[in-house]
Design a protein that fits this description.
- By secondary structure, this protein is an alpha/beta fold.
- It has a single domain, classed as Vaccinia Virus protein VP39 (Rossmann fold, 3-Layer(aba) Sandwich).
- 44% of the residues lie in helices and 15% in strands.
- A seven-stranded mixed sheet has the order 5-4-3-6-7-9-8, with helices on both faces.
- Strand 6, helix 7 and strand 7 form a beta-alpha-beta unit.
- Helix 1 packs across helix 9 and helix 7 runs parallel beside helix 8.
- The longest helix has 17 residues.
- The chain is globular, with a radius of gyration of 18 Å.
- It starts with a helix and ends with a strand.
- The relative contact order is 0.14.
Length: 245
């Protein structure tokens, strides 16, 4: 066995062990709750724009994009633009002609201007509208066509909205690509930590993911990713497509 293969095996074994370590999980869960209370994810930028993600999830997305090499990345939820600029920069590094399609119900003018003025804007298309409206879905399907798509859902985090997004966007994802649902961690937190939001631990994305997986055999949770990260906003949210139909 080559040195590289030995290293890969070692890391896989390490990931499996830490995923099964209940003490590690307990400490991580407490840390995550404290991080939410302190708005920890708001502290980071990517190439100058706020990204509002855990660094661990950013690294996981990098690994997925490099492995899948999508022809288009569809992101529902733009916020301040850091995430779509991150995705575009990864595509730029890979050197593929792929692009990012960012969708948001309200792309505020100052965010739109900052995104379009960014060097990575050449790989970004913006689409304003509800991610679950008939008009938006029709336009997304038109732009995706037969391209290999990676889909990231990070907009409205209520159970009902994510449930609709999963039904509408999952057909765009082909075998060996991913459908990623962010902020499933909401379901593991208290309502106090979602105060002022329409979602909470009884009305969040993980519930929608659980029901979605019960009705499809096309996707499965990539346990290795969340066991590797431990700290993630998307527990049970990294869904790998294992079948085209």
């Amino acid at each position: 066995m080559s040195d590289h293969n030995e290293f890969v095996k070692m890391t896989k074994d390490n990931v499996a062990c830490q995923g099964a370590d209940e003490r590690f999980r307990s400490v991580t869960d407490k840390w995550i709750k404290s991080s939410v209370e302190n708005k920890y994810t708001y502290n980071f930028t990517w190439l100058g724009r706020p990204i509002i993600q855990y660094p661990q999830d950013i690294l996981a997305l990098q690994e997925i994009i490099f492995k899948v090499k999508p022809e288009i990345i569809v992101e529902a939820g733009i916020a301040r633009g850091g995430s779509i600029i991150f995705s575009a920069s990864m595509l730029e590094l890979i050197g593929s002609p792929a692009e990012v399609l960012g969708i948001d119900i309200d792309i505020r003018s100052h965010n739109r201007e900052a995104i379009l003025a960014h060097p990575m804007s050449k790989r970004i298309q913006l689409l304003q509208g509800s991610s679950v409206s008939a008009e938006t879905i029709a336009e997304v399907k038109k732009r995706v066509g037969n391209k290999k798509a990676l889909v990231i859902l990070d907009s409205n985090h209520t159970y009902e909205h994510v449930k609709q997004e999963l039904e509408l966007y999952s057909p765009l994802v082909q075998k060996d690509s991913y459908l990623i649902v962010f902020d499933t961690v909401i379901d593991d937190l208290s309502d106090e930590l979602s105060a002022g939001r329409p979602w909470g631990y009884k009305n969040g994305p993980k519930k929608a993911v659980d029901e979605f997986l019960q009705k499809t055999n096309r996707f499965e949770i990539d346990e290795e990713i969340q066991n590797k990260l431990m700290i993630t906003a998307a527990p049970s949210g990294y869904l790998k497509c294992i079948s085209n139909g």
